[in-house]
Amino acid sequence: MTIKLAVTGASGFVGRQLLAVAARERLEVIGIVRSEKSAAGISRFGARASVVPRLEAEPLAAALAGAQAVVHLAMIGREREGRTYEAVNVQGTRAVVEAARRAGVPRVVLFSGLGVAHYGMTRRCTNPYFLSKLAAEVELFRSGREAVVFRPSYIVGPGDGLVTRILAEMASGEVLRVGDGRYRMHPAFVGDAAAAALAAAQDPPPGVAPPPRVLDLVGPEPVSFQSFLERTAAAARAQGRKANFRIREVSVEEADRAAAAGGFRGMGTDELDCLICDEVSDAAPLSHFLHRPLTPLDDAIAAAVREAPTKAASV
Fold it and tell me: What is the pLDDT of residues 170-191, one digit of tens each?
């Protein structure tokens, strides 16, 4: 079935993967991006680009005209350069759902965050970032659109920030680890994330309104951060990369102070919370939704390592 699918944040990490999957299925896609430079970057995926510099209802409605679903990915994980959670994650989502209403788009697929369900329950999930994701979900649920929400842990694959940063540290000879590294994460493969978003845009058929649906977007296994480091190192060595390094442990308190003062390993306070929040879930519902097994974690890490720059970046 051909579907006119719109994707905000189409030039981002998940957005590019979604365009690639849609192209293989010969689906008509409109990629909504902020600049002409980003528009040129997505043309190779066969998507038609629509440049909307700011998430505002009127220009978005014009871009969404005729679409059967919109996947909303244009959100931020850190406030910087004047871009705030309130303006982008909350008001931006409000603009997207209003644009969908004006354009008659029945379904909106939103990417939120795995820690949202524990806002107010655990310290590391009770921060402005998770609050903005929670508020974005509420904007969608109250919109009258068919709502599908994914709550991802880390998404891993070619071009992801986490593996790229770890590989750069490994190449430098020293990896910084917050605390003992026993806090868990539940990474999902970017290809699974893209497949889930595309399935949500089409299943069930638009016009047959399902109740709001929320799925945790996690991989087949949770893993401690220390184990994630070890498995990334193993993948790097298997591919002939430098992975002889020492681990320098930094206390949680020191990492918190550094993040609050401007950044720890490039992470702000909320990003550090996401790393050590110890959020995991049940992968079975996502596997059932996709009607197939999820991509093994080691395969996801290997794919990320394969496409990462070989020259160490600054960390």
Answer: 999 999 999 999 999 999 999 9
The end-to-end CA distance of the chain, in Å, is 45
> What is the rounded distance in angstroms from the CA atom of residue 118 to the CA atom of residue 106?
29
CATH at 212? 3.40.50.720
Instruction: Determine the pLDDT at residue 312.
Output: 45
Residue 61: give the domain boundaries.
4-153+190-217+281-294
- Asked, for residue 40, whether it belongs to a domain, the answer is yes
Angle, alpha carbons 177-178-181 (nearest 5°)? 75
Overall number of domains in the chain: 1
The segments of the chain whose pLDDT lies below 50 read 312-315
pTM > 0.85: yes
Ramachandran area for residue 165 (φ above 0: left; ψ -120 to 50: alpha; else beta): alpha
State how far the Cα of 21 lies from the Cα of 46, in Å rounded to an integer: 11
Q: Are 290 and 192 in contact (CB under 8 A)?
A: yes
Three-state DSSP class for residue 3:
coil
